[in-house]
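Q&A log
Question type: sequence-to-structure
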Amino acid sequence: MKAISIREAGGPEVLEWIETDDPTPATGEVLIDVAATALNRADVMQRMGLYPLPPGTSPYPGLEVSGRISALGEGVSGWKVGDEVCALLTGGGYAQKVAVPAGQLLTVPKGVSLVEAAALPEAAATVWSNIVMTAGLKEGETFLMHGGAGGVGTLAIQIAKALGARVVTTVGSPEKARKARQLGADATINYREQDFAEHGPYDVILDVVGGQYLEGNIKSLAADGRLVIIGLQNGLEGQLNLGDLVFKRLSVHGTTLRTRSAAQKAEIVAEVQRNVWPMIENASVKLILDRTLSMADASDAHRLMEEGQHVGKILLVNG
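Response status: OK
Response body:
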């Protein structure tokens, strides 16, 4: 098979479309012939050498795929060769084939094409596991999504709205603000011009930025508010006011999907299948795609993501 290899840490030009051995499904795994994968910020960080891989992870990037099952490992039940699926991965999605634990498989939602389904697993699992399973977002609460135009952000806005929350998001341009409002955001904040902390209080914040945003996040949370940090685009360090944390009874969570156990991922995937897929199938949540490129053009796709002008997901397609 062919896969996208990272020749060395660096810019998009270090991604290479190479010949490599086919993976073999282990016990409890299935082999998927990959139709498509989708870009995630973690792919860019891995390419740059800034994302240490969990032990045993494929060296090839790619945290989600869609495709058809081509082989079953020992002990797999409930799935058969030929089934169309999408899947949450620990890595290896930038390829023509990938082996994945059966517990991380999802059906392709009705109304979504096989290729389009590649854009769903990582974002859906990230949003549901963090704003619902971790932060417990409730109807009537106010939710702030940092970065509402990306793959996670466009889905988070819609899921939070479907749960009955008031939704606020930060964006970087008037065009992205318009798109966020179309998706259901009640308010948008241009982070280049406004201080999001002045527009609180928020009950739940999902932060993909990290770094200097920590102080503003804590300042703007309501009493009993919950902050979930899932990204570190602005660095690893920030200031924390312990007085606010204690006297407002705040909770701060740092999470990532990639390093969770297969059992934990299977639990999240089951929750997504049960709760998010119906939202997609009844069109209360829509999949937002920016563009589709060939798998061999992964370098161009990474450049697009780093430019930051995309809205929604960028797909890489085989064939």
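Response note: Residues 2-120+259-317 form a domain with the Quinone Oxidoreductase; Chain A, domain 1 fold (CATH 3.90.180.10).
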